[in-house]
Amino acid sequence: MRIAWNDEETREGFRFSSQEAASSFGDDRLLIEKFIDNPRHIEIQVLADKHGNALWLNERECSIQRRNQKVVEEAPSTFLDPETRRAMGEQAVALARAVQYSSAGTVEFLVDTQKNFYFLEMNTRLQVEHPITECITGLDLVQQMIRVAKGYALQHTQADIPINGWAIESRVYAEDPYKSFGLPSIGRLSQYQEPSNLTGVRVDSGIQEGSDISIYYDPMISKLVSYGSTRAEALERMEAALDCYVIRGVTHNIPLLREILVHPRFVSGDISTKFLPEVYPEGFKGHQLSDSEREELLATAASLFVATRLRSQRFLGNLRVSSAPQEQQKWELSVELEKGSHTVTVSRKGSTYTVQLDGKSVDVSSDWNLASAVLPVTVNGTQRTVQCLSRNAGGELNLQYLGTVYKVRVLSKLAASLSRHMPEKVPEDSSSILRSPMPGSVVAVSVKPGDTVAEGQEICVIEAMKMQNSMTAARAAKVKSVHCKPGETVGEGDLLVELE
């Protein structure tokens, strides 16, 4: 699905959309539809049997999208009033009856700012987001589909269908959210732990630890659902679930999901299908730390560093060297974050570390179970959930904090003074080369060595997970060499073309 604003975009959109349709569905025919600017994407769940009975099971708000694919859904919608909900539901049921539909299905609409709604399509199947409808209605849609298929009449009438509470679904993808809000990532799940132990949280997945995410299928890892008596409670539970979700081995979109859920526009319900490009016009950059959050992160990193040091000195609860002097109680450290360096002093009292940082005192306490993938900490009385993705002997820590992974470097005072003499790695000049931004297969190569290309000119097309992406030249130049050909599989970062 593509939007065309002019003749050039129409030609390009037709080419890519027809190629994607032929590749994914074996049918390259296209529909041309009116584009509703700044709409909401709201769908009605229907359920019909073979005896002429049909129900609408309320709506789902699916407006948070990237590349016209849903990312976050909720039920009910913050936008609909009872009259609009009833009108949309009755039209959806009328459509199902008109085609003598039986089973569960979804009628999708676009709704403008005046609550005028326009039919988009009907999906004659179970939707990815069906769990949130189950949460607010209490109906098991899969069970209902099986009963209908067997020939039984529906057990409920329209008056029996409630809206109890609020449910939110986050689609957890193996994607890099820092690239076009989510380009596919592949790899093996080296560690995987779902937050299904939390109250009001449901996880529907088809993978497990050790599973491979490949380029041949949709990159969805799971459907993460939270349910509460109110929308605020459902949002709070989703936030906790995302913080406790452990995914290692592939890049995932949890940083983006968490930022969406806590954004003031989303919390207030002011959303549309343009939410992501409007909120992040320069692309998603991760969570932007406030001053207090930065202090929390620095203090947590320093405390984690000290806790790791102390653990390494012990074996079966005893000091490794019996004649060692009394255990150290105070440390002077250097903590580096985002090119800023901070000198901190850490002192310990039991399981609590007091960190003196930029003239302020921060208390960090935890059970310090460093073998756990999820580390609950209390920072100056505030509960946080931190994940340490990696740490090395050079003092580098990758910490997932507030959903975003931050690279923090913690060194002793002596090591920090010596590190200033280490040469820095010079970044690669990307203007003369084109690398694949994601794993996929090469559909077409539009240039050959010796060709002259203009800035923005298409060089090749990479297809991954049902989406074709045009790779273009960063500047006007002559093609030096081509390192790919149609039909080849490429990985993220693979060299495609060199320019002179």
TrEMBL record:
Quote the cellular component terms of the Gene Ontology held in the record.
mitochondrion
Question: What domain of life does the native source organism fall in?
Answer: Eukaryota
Pathway listed for it is: Metabolic intermediate metabolism; propanoyl-CoA degradation; succinyl-CoA from propanoyl-CoA: step 1/3
Compartments (UniProt record): Mitochondrion
Q: Does the keyword section mention Mitochondrion? A: yes
Q: Which GO terms describe its molecular function?
A: ATP binding; metal ion binding; propionyl-CoA carboxylase activity
Entry cofactors: biotin
| Location of the ATP-grasp domain | 27-150
What protein name is recorded for this chain? Answer: propionyl-CoA carboxylase
- Organism, per UniProt? Anguilla anguilla (European freshwater eel)
